[in-house]
Design goal:
single chain, 347 residues, alpha+beta, 14% strand
């Protein structure tokens, strides 16, 4: 199944909308059924069955046609180079975006497959994953426009300031303490927030410098298990290119590994990380120093980040709650095992 990120399970477009959409395609058939895809956190996706076959229909919520078209051009060019993707289908007029009632849609081929986390990957598959991401970064450098001038990535953020993080911790602690009925999640959240503040007080002097211009390039932007489909042991499609942009490349490699290879107890499988990172360096030509700098910055980012608790306590959105125990434990374990993690990424 080709799955896309969705905001939440939502009603599918009605028959009139689907008929208008499919009319733009030469051989897409007539709509038979359209069911929401119930995985992910961004955009809306649907399984669309027509008289011609099965498709994946994506509703781009941000409606930025320029950004969507750029994503589509990139995926079409990458697929032409042989990377496993499911680029959008072209309409009869050659366009890949359809706007109906102010909403932007794209139709993709259906890809059968499954998502595999790092615990399900062998060492050989971990190497293949690292090589695949390295190839993505190298290929993006070929097919996307070069940066006009050197400098930091336009959307890269300065590294977090502990003083600002302490304010966030205080706010979240206050919200967690007044939550009723109180649950074990609230107890864990309080513990992790206090623990993280103590760690930041101890390690504040290790705040990294801002991203290095030499490490900047085009990246997928959201490379994690739900955005890679496998058919058997082989990657069948890299999906969800909504965050395609210019960012520090090695940081994407480190960030992805921290999601793929985290165990439920909040530790990283360092043997798989080393296999993945070695293959990434070889495919991308990245040197160990670049990876070391990325490890440091992503570690610091994790130490200062509380987006899952922000979703729960500020927004009342609990969809990320199941991820919190492992993610919050990882920041603590990574701090304690910092050198071992760095060694795994740098070889």
């Amino acid at each position: 199944m080709l799955r896309s990120s969705v905001v939440r399970t939502a009603a599918a477009p009605d028959g009139r909308t689907l008929g208008s959409l499919l009319a733009h395609y030469a051989d897409a058939g007539e709509p038979l059924s359209c069911e929401p895809v119930a995985e992910g956190l961004l955009n809306r996706g649907y399984t669309l069955v027509t008289t011609d076959g099965r498709y994946f229909l994506k509703h781009h919520l941000d409606g930025d046609r320029g950004s969507i078209s750029r994503q589509h051009r990139a995926t079409l060019r990458l697929a032409a180079l042989g990377l496993p993707l499911a680029p959008p289908l072209a309409r009869a007029d050659g366009r890949t975006v359809t706007v109906l009632d102010g909403r932007c849609y794209a139709l993709h081929p259906w890809v059968d497959g499954e998502h595999l986390g790092g615990t399900a990957l062998t060492l050989a598959q971990s190497r293949r994953l690292g090589a695949l991401l390295g190839l993505v970064h190298t290929a993006l450098e070929r097919v996307m426009p070069a940066q006009r001038r050197p400098g930091p990535a336009p959307h890269a953020q300065p590294s977090a300031q502990p003083a600002q993080t302490f304010d966030v911790i205080d706010e979240l602690l206050a919200l967690a303490r007044v939550t009723r009925p109180r649950t074990s999640f609230d107890e864990l959240a309080e513990h992790r927030l206090r623990e993280r503040r103590a760690l930041l007080e101890r390690h504040a002097h290790r705040r990294p410098a801002d991203p290095c211009a030499a490490a900047v390039g085009w990246v997928h932007g959201d490379f994690h298990p739900l955005n890679v489909l496998y058919r058997g042991a082989t990657p069948a499609a890299i999906i969800d290119w909504d965050r395609l942009g210019v960012q520090p490349r090695a940081e994407e490699a480190v960030r992805a590994a921290a999601i793929f290879f985290v165990r439920p107890c909040g530790t990283l499988d360092l043997a798989k990380v080393a296999a993945y990172a070695g293959a990434y360096r070889g495919a991308r030509g990245a040197d160990p120093g670049e990876l070391a700098a990325a490890v440091h910055r992503v570690w610091w980012e994790r130490l200062n980040d509380f987006w899952m608790l922000t979703w729960r306590y500020r927004l009342g959105d609990r969809r990320t709650d199941p991820q919190f125990p492992a993610a919050s434990a990882l920041a603590v374990w990574w701090t304690r095992e910092y050198q071992a993690v760095r060694d795994a990424f740098t070889g």
